[in-house]
Write a structure and sequence with these properties.
alpha/beta, Rossmann fold, UDP-galactose 4-epimerase, domain 1, 2 domains, 3-stranded mixed sheet, 40% helix, binds nicotinamide-adenine-dinucleotide
């Protein structure tokens, strides 16, 4: 039985990835600084470790003194735009330590395959009518925020270990991802979860606040499709960074309308100042599609699976008297 380690297994995408690897027949160890907030882990073993420490990274990748077959590095200090713009030092410090020590530990202990979770935030801002950015367009580098710079640097760290120490490295640049069991409140949530929460909390005919003027264009990928891309890329021979994401584009205002429709509510928008991020970012998914990968969920399908879960969380929190 092949052994895999998922770092960040206590988080949103890592939790879903553990489930997928179990279905594929792997023995799976989940690693995270915390347990999953919203569900029991599906992993065979869960180690609570702080991966900012080099010795924890070594412990993470060895089972009975032997390296595991595959490491998926998804641990990061991260969140949506609100968090990214308010926690620059935490992101630069914590995620950089995790990625530097994890790449080193995996390579020096002889892990054969390592996947690093990068982000579409490595790309510069775009005009809405510009052609899609391909992976090579990450250079000359001009990420919009420190989170993107950290990802770009950590890609380079992992790829240096591939070149110099013979570890097979796969670099996946994720588009915005959404789905059940992800952060939905507290400041780290991303736009789809935030819209689902706000619409679940507001009465029919009410108004919700949206940061910026709502014209920013976004792409959102349903978590099962993203995990499918991760699994496909890890098995591929693509040694360069690879975008994983849907091609379906939507403005923030239209996202609100879509969530409201799924919720069966009429909702107005009040635009307020807030961290919006880039105006548009359309990245090409041609490279991953060449492997036969495709996104199976339209945004409507994915929101229809996500909204009920966020609604349940929101209603439970409101019943407890918590602020949502
Ligand atoms: P998440 O915050 O839900 O999961 C990240 C996990 O890393 C968390 O459970 C957290 O506890 C863990 N972690 C943080 N510091 C740690 C430490 N010191 N030691 C051990 N674990 C630690 O985020 P996610 O949405 O599941 O994202 C997973 C990966 O994908 C991250 O690398 C993220 O940057 C990347 N990514 C996510 C998206 C998205 O839309 N969700 C988009 C692009 C890239």
């Amino acid at each position: 039985m092949k052994k895999a380690v998922v770092c960040g297994a206590g988080g949103f995408i890592g939790g879903h990835l553990v489930e997928r690897l179990k279905k594929e027949g792997f023995w799976v160890r989940g690693v995270d600084i915390k347990q999953h907030e919203f569900r029991e882990t599906a992993a065979d073993e869960f180690l609570q470790l702080d991966l900012r420490k080099p010795e924890s990274c070594g412990e993470a990748v060895l089972v009975d003194g032997q390296p595991v077959d595959e490491v998926y590095q998804l641990a990061a200090d991260m969140g949506g735009m609100g968090f990214i713009h308010s926690a620059e030092c935490e992101i630069m410090h914590n995620s950089l330590l995790i990625n530097t020590y994890m790449s080193h530990a995996a390579a020096s202990h002889g892990v054969p395959r390592y996947l690093f979770s990068s982000s579409a935030c490595v790309y510069r801002d775009q005009q809405p009518d510009e052609p899609d950015l391909t992976e090579d367009d990450a250079y000359p580098a001009q990420p919009d925020n420190e989170y993107g710079w950290e990802k770009l640097y950590s890609e380079r760290v992992a790829l240096a270990y591939q070149r110099n120490q013979g570890m097979t490295v796969r670099v996946a640049r994720f588009q915005n991802c959404y789905g059940p069991y992800g952060t939905w409140n507290g400041g780290r949530e991303k736009a789809p979860a935030a819209m689902c929460r706000k619409i679940a909390a507001v009465e029919d005919g009410g108004t919700i606040e949206v940061w910026g003027d709502g014209t920013a264009m976004r792409v959102f990928t349903y978590v099962d499709d993203l995990v499918d891309g991760i699994y496909t890329l890890m098995r591929s021979s693509i040694a360069q960074p690879t975008n994983i994401g849907s091609d379906e584009r939507i403005s923030v205002n239209d996202l609100v309308a879509l969530v409201a429709e799924v919720a069966g509510k009429t909702v107005g928008i009040r635009h307020v100042d807030g961290p919006v991020g880039v105006h548009a970012r359309n990245h090409s998914s041609a490279r991953i599609r060449e492997l036969g990968w495709t996104d199976r969920h339209t945004l409507r399908d994915g929101i229809a699976k996500t909204y009920p879960w966020v609604k349940e969380q929101t209603e439970q929190a409101m019943a407890r008297g918590d602020e949502v």
